[in-house]
Amino acid sequence: MSIIVFLVITLFIAFIQTVIPYLVKRTVVFGVTIPDQYTQNPTIKAYKKRYSISVALLSGIIIGGYIIWAFTNERLEEQVAIAGTIIEFAIIFISVSWYFYYHGKTKQLKSKNKWVENLKQVKVTDLSVRSQDEMLPWYIYLMPILITIGFMLYTIINYELLPDQIPTHWGPSGEPDAFTEKTPFSSIQLTLLLLVMQLMFLGIHIATKNSGIKLSATGLQSSRNRQLSLRKYSSWFMLFVVLVITMLMGYFQLTTIHPNIASDYAMAALPLFFLAIVLIGTLIFGLKVGRSDKEIEILEDEKIMDIDEDKYWKGGMFYFNKNDPSIFVEKRFGVGWTINFANPIGYIIVLVPLIIIIVISIL
Amino acid sequence: MIIQIDTESDIPIYTQLTNQIIEGIARGDIQPGHSLPSVRAFAADLGVNMHTVNKSYHELEKKGVIKIVPKSGAMISPIDNINNETKQRIISELKPHLAEALVLGMGKEEIKSLINTIIGEMKER
């Protein structure tokens, strides 16, 4: 059973890592700003192709080796899990290494050919773009939050019914395998964690909404498409994940109060189902946003480019720009968001809830 | 309306913002009564410091082009009859430019037709 889970996740990681160069923003190649005039350069295209082939081939060999290893002998579940985790990290490590290799090559190519020297760097925005933003409103998060508070109240009302040992951890089969002494705090611990997590997602949602809608001067329409779909679909996807987690945790909480409603089948299937829909959701999100800006427009002004932001991107991956009030910005290698490390609010939104979650779990 | 900032220009960014917004109103791209984006959103979308946008909004307010209403943002003011004081300010700002054009070799007729062309791009009030 667990081999299938690991294979699916690993194949998923390998696939995403392979196609990333074709899903990122058109004017960013391996974390390097390339003016729109040169994005179709044959060397650039060759780099992308070579990266993808290398990652796909190496991942294929690793996954193939894993399958052969797992099926030639009887392996313990733990061995399969440990090996599975190792190969997942190996694939990530390999693709990151290739990324850095081609990041360096692209940077060299750009400076050797003096691609930015003769172009005027501009910044551009549309005063009406905000009115086209289709992110969900923040108050939609009140729905899962209220559900969680409902679970909390329900637990407190039914405190008598709770067993003396409260489950705190569930094994892969959905059976609880770690317990704690029953106290008023431990009885609502799970719902408290859920609430903090929901508040974190709400914080991320609001911060994302306040972050910039970055348009490109050389591709106004395609950059608008991409930014608006990134915002819209990431807000849908985040809410979807929150709702699914709420259902999952809510179900666990209810089975603790009423053990007779727990079915072994549901307990085992739910986490797998959760994993499957999150993976599918990620895939749809990545492809949908990744393909939203690939239609090439006619350049109206050949002499301009978007501001070269390479100096704000450390290693092409970490954004550090004091002048940008955005808390989150679009990733340079991948589909999604990354934090503006120069803005302390970003750390607060992500770190404080994580610390609270850790504190609640070890209390 | 598209705002495009030249990052290498000698003209400060806040002045470029001010000028483009005024031109946008004159062309009819933004109408009186409509509001400009919030300082935070504008600065984030453009990737500039909030102070820059703030400075431009205050300059626009001082000129009487927009009105900053607390809580609801910056609204484009209706086009009113110009008062004498403002007229004097515009004349004194325009004069050096016209003089410079003459001194650098532009003919009077050329300047007149240039002014006509520029005004032609703007909307009649």
Q: In a nutshell, what does this entry contain?
A:
Chain A has 363 residues and is mainly α. Helices cover 60% and strands 10% of the residues of chain A. Chain A has 2 domains: 1-118; 121-363, no CATH class.
Characterize the structure shown:
The complex is a heterodimer of chains A (363) and B (125). Chain A contains 8 helices and 10 strands. By secondary structure, chain A is mainly α. In chain A, the strands form 5 sheets. A two-stranded antiparallel ribbon of chain A has the order 1-2. In chain A, a hairpin with a 6-residue loop joins strand 9 and strand 10. The longest helix of chain A is centred in the middle third of the chain and has 38 residues, at 220-257. The mean pLDDT of chain A is 90. Chain B has 2 domains: 13-76, Winged helix-like DNA-binding domain superfamily/Winged helix DNA-binding domain (Arc Repressor Mutant, subunit A, Orthogonal Bundle); 84-121. In chain B, strands 2-3 form a two-stranded antiparallel sheet. The mean pLDDT of chain B is 91. At the A-B interface, strand 3 of A face strand 1 and helix 2 of B. Strand 3 of chain A pairs antiparallel with strand 1 of chain B, so a sheet runs across the interface.
Key terms:
heterodimer; A: about 375 residues; mainly alpha; 2 domains; two-stranded antiparallel ribbon; two-stranded parallel sheet; globular; B: about 120 residues; Arc Repressor Mutant, subunit A; 5 helices; about 55% helix; membrane (chain A); DUF1648 domain-containing protein (chain A); transmembrane helix (chain A); DUF1648 (chain A); DUF5808 (chain A)
- State the assembly state of the protein chains: heterodimer
Neighbour order of strands in the largest sheet of chain A: 1-2
Which structural class do the helices and strands of chain A define? Answer: mainly alpha
Measure the end-to-end span of chain A: 33 Å
Mean pLDDT of chain A: 90
Structural class of chain B: mainly alpha
Assess the beta-strand content of chain A as a share of residues.
5-15%
Distance between the termini of chain B: 19 Å
Describe the global form of chain A.
globular
Largest interface summary: A-B, 26 and 23 residues
Q: What is the C-level CATH assignment of the largest domain in chain B?
A: Mainly Alpha
The CATH level-2 architecture of the largest domain in chain B is identified as Orthogonal Bundle
What is the string of helix and strand elements of chain B? Answer: EHHHEEHH
Shape descriptor of chain B: globular
Number of strands of chain A: 10
